[in-house]
Prior knowledge:
By secondary structure, this protein is mainly β. It contains one helix and nine strands.
Amino acid sequence: MKKFILILTAFSFLFLTTKAQKFGAGAGFTYGTQISTAGINVGGFFVFFKKKMNLELSLSSFSKLNQNFIAYDKTTALWDANLNLRYIINWDVIGIYPIAGLNIANTKIDTIFHYKSPITGEDRENNSTKKATYGLNAGIGFQVNLESVFPFIELKHVFGDYNQSMFTIGLRFKLGKSEEAQQ
C-alpha cells in the first residue's frame, strides 16, 4: 500500500509541474476475470501529438477475495499499475482507441490452515506470500467527448505471468489550464 501511495503521489506531482498542462485524471470501477472480483481504478494522463495520443498511468486495487475450504481459508488481494498508450480516433462526440502498455501486478495471498499443530498445540497456522508479476496490456476503449468530462469503457487483456482480462467503466476529467486536454 505504501508503494501504491508513493507512485500515485509521484505521478500527481508530475502532472502538476508540467508546462504544457494538457493532462487529466479519472476514476472508475474495474473487474478482473482471473480473480473474479471488482476493484477501483484511478489514474492520470498526458495528452500529446495533436491531442490524439495519451500516455496514462493507472492504478487498480481489487477487493479481497475470500475463499473458505474444509482444511484452510484463503484471502487474495491484488493491485496493479499500468502505463498505457492510447491513440484516440474521434467521430463527433464518440472516441474509440486502441490500448497498449505495460503492467505490474502485486498479489498477496494469506492462508490460514485449520488443524491442531503437534508442536505448538495451536489450532491454526498462518502463511502469507507476495508476488510481483510483469506483463503487457492490449485492448480497446470507447469514450464520449463531453465539455470537460469523458465517460469511458475499456476492455483490455494483461499478457504475462498473471493473465487476466479487465473491464473498466468510469469518468475522466480535464485538468490544468489547457482548453482541450483529452480530445
